[in-house]
Amino acid sequence: MVLGIVIIAAACVDMGVIKGFAGMETTGHETDIVLIVVGVLIIIVAAFGCFGAWKESPKLLYIFAGCLIVIILLELSVGIAAAALRPQIEGTLKTQLRASFIKNKSTREEDSTYREFWDRVQSSLECCGVTGPDNYVNSEPRLNPSFSCCPPDGSDRADEIKRSDCISLAKYYQQGCEERVLGTVHSAGMTVIVCGILFCFLEVIGIVLALWLAHSIKTQDKGRETA
């Protein structure tokens, strides 16, 4: 059951990371959704296995082992698909980040959500622009870096004064957000894949134990019948 809960948690975290950095778009959730379903199945099958062990039923334990084999095959399939699709997801994410950055520089009211998105990304990841602060200056409309590109200085001065000081002294973050975002998403994806591989080994141990227990129960039953 614990394995199922951990898989669900890891998939939800990965889904949240991708959604949080998708530039107001939704992408790359398919493998995470399948993993959440697999996690729920693991919880149900684990409860079934516990019931079979409690009842000392070889048939239920064999069914439990068979279900674990199916789950392992599902996990391996999802893991391979996730590893194969990861570059595509990260490429799509990169395209969406660049598209949303253009709208971030817009002064239109309907694009305010993109400005809020980039302010959140830049302040939380301590980065500026797509590839760097020059993205604000080198493309139309030419703007100074956003105030969210500036590290907090901890003073009580007004925000306008803080921003003016940050811009004039070039104190803003120098690293672009694209590298930070893709690194964060890649790390979250690798965590899910590694967890899936590790749990496959643990489930193989569970299959071996279930088969051994079923065999032991059958041997004991035959011994009682003979006696």
TrEMBL record:
Disulfide bonds join C127-C166, C128-C150. It is a multi-pass membrane protein. Its main location: membrane. The keyword Hydrolase does not apply. Keywords: Disulfide bond, Membrane, Transmembrane, Transmembrane helix. CDD domains: tetraspanin_LEL. GO terms for cellular component: plasma membrane. The chain crosses the membrane at residues 33-54, 61-85, 188-214. It is found in: Membrane. Belongs to the tetraspanin (TM4SF) family. PANTHER family: TETRASPANIN. This is Tetraspanin. The lineage of its organism: Eukaryota, Metazoa, Ecdysozoa, Arthropoda, Hexapoda.
